[in-house]
Prior knowledge:
Elements: H1 14-25, H2 36-52, H3 55-63, H4 65-75, H5 77-90, H6 95-109
Helix pairs in contact: 2-3, 3-4, 4-5
Amino acid sequence: MSQPKKRGRHKPSSAFLRALAKMMRIGDHELSELTETDWAKLKALEAAWKRDGGAAFDRLMDSDFYAYFRIVASLNPKAMRKALEEQLLNMGMTNREYLAMCRKKARQKH
């Protein structure tokens, strides 16, 4: 069985960029699952994106993957799920295999 080809980083989809623009206009931060720190990073991401385009997403992912994950998952959960599934395949695992591994590790801790 051959491994899937590893792909480079993708530019954000137009749907994601529309969601990003929409999030920037949301006045009530209570409607979002993002923390105040996430909102600050999102504002910085918006400024960097306007200046540098898609490279801003790569820099955030490299510098603070947790914040990147929260922001992307909040704006576009389907895209994040797809990206995670692709990454698991790149690691040679299926979703079920990964979940089984996580469950096994969780049981070992208790």
